[in-house]
Fold this sequence. Notes:
The chain is of the alpha/beta class and 248 residues long. Helix content is 35%, strand content 15%. The protein has helices at 4-30, 48-56, 59-63, 76-84, 114-117, 120-126, 161-171, 232-237, 239-247; strands at residues 66-69, 88-92, 102-105, 128-130, 140-143, 147-149, 154-155, 180-184, 190-191, 206-208, 213-215. The chain has an eight-stranded mixed sheet, sandwiched between helices. Helix 4 (76-84) links the parallel strand 1 and strand 2 (88-92). The chain is globular and about 45 Å long.
Amino acid sequence: MPSPAGKAVGQVQAAKQAVRERVWEQLERSGAAPPPGAYGRIPMFERADAAADRLTRLPEWHAARIVKANPDWAQMPVRTRALADGKVVYMAVPRLAGEYPFIMLDPSRLSAPAEDAGGKERALELGQPVRVEQIRPVDLAVAGSVAVNKSGARVGKGGGFSDIEIALLTEAGVIGPHTTVVTTVHPLQVVADPLPETQHDFRVDVILTPDEVIRATDPRPSPGIIWDDLEQAKIAEIPVLARLSRRR
């Protein structure tokens, strides 16, 4: 029988899934998510390039030299613009697989133009695999979202990998008070109601849509890795977590 804590976590996860289903359905119904559609993923959305352009106008963007990015298609325009602007990009490997869970893309060393290297598959081909401890301090962290609200709370696609990416880099000291965390989304992904959260969830500092910049009213940094909240199956699934767990 699940413990009271386990029941509470299960309720939060069920509430998050209800939010995902609602937003995915709205994106599909409105035609705002191009093929292959919104369901089950960080959805690509119409005018994602305009949201990325809005990000590039922020002072935090101009000050950033090192960017951490998620590998989802929706944030490809952000990765492309970062490389075009001469920024070093650390892209998470999908599902943080392997002993090298990030790819470093240094525009001064790439053998392909930024618009090519910003794509996930080409980034994996062209970039240099790196361990967490090899990553330089991150100025700007980009997260994908299914839903987000104006307090900065967000809901991802359900795998928990974005929270783990940020937590790993927080534990390593390369994400911290000096880092601005942002997400790019369609306006339909910005919800008015509170979003369900657990203690390991981080909040973003800035939300970019194609039409506006939203400064979060109550951003919250990642607490780092909360081992008691991680299932053994999840630890075993991610090699870097398994390695860190053995050292504890």
